[in-house]
Amino acid sequence: MAEFVFKYGPKKRPKVNKIQSYEGWKEAFIKHDSPIHWKDGRSAQSLAGDFMLNNTPGREMLVQIVEQITRTEIAGNIEAYIEHESKIDGFRGKARMQDLAAFGKFRNDQPFFIGVEAKVDETFDETIGEKAFEIEKHRAKKPTTKQHERLMNLLHNFLHVQFDRGGFPELSDVPAEIKNLRYQLLYYLAGSFREDAKIIFMPVVVYKSNGLHFGCYDSNIGTQNQIDYENFRKALGFQEYKTIQFAGSDIVVYYAKLKDWRDNTEKDVYTCYIVR
Fold it and tell me: In Å, what is the CA distance from 10 to each residue of 50, 95, 128, 147?
């Protein structure tokens, strides 16, 4: 199996150059993120345990997703960055923060990117419509913000919506089914797509068992999250592509060839929703 090299922070200048243990991961997260966001059973701790404890099943899971889907072996190491920032555009401010971002290459030297979104009791947050009004409140206090432009650009570039930009924040000519999609999923897609790779993997991993063990998992949130994911992947045209096997369970993988209207770049994008 391909070897993983874990670091913390941005790829170009990581805050921690090598993480070799669960304790090292925890220490880096608490130091550079916040102790508040580290709690047994929640997503940050669950992700660390999956990739550092109990024979590291998370590593095998990612390798199996990539190699079974592409039928191509990974060559060399996989560089994995905790809390990696995927740049979306040239605007200032924090971009898409990946729970785990993995960069690798196949034997033909073709690069791939994996953006892991980890969940336990966390929602996908606001809809696109709700986010627009939240941004408008922020803009009233900080008129120089570009958040509204970013949102409208993402609607155009990835959801391929033509609309009157002067109608922000109501977005009255944007279809309701688009405004009801979760903004976090659009941000997740944009950040992952714009990484330097032609093949993109977007696994959402729900750590249900670990969450239940520590009393963190919320079944209502879990159900709503899966509905939100399904609505988003259908809106983007993801179709069922292949079912792969991992640890005795089936994982349904969806595929779409997506185009970014910003520069007409097309990429192969694979996504799956894994409950473990």
Answer: 21, 11, 27, 22
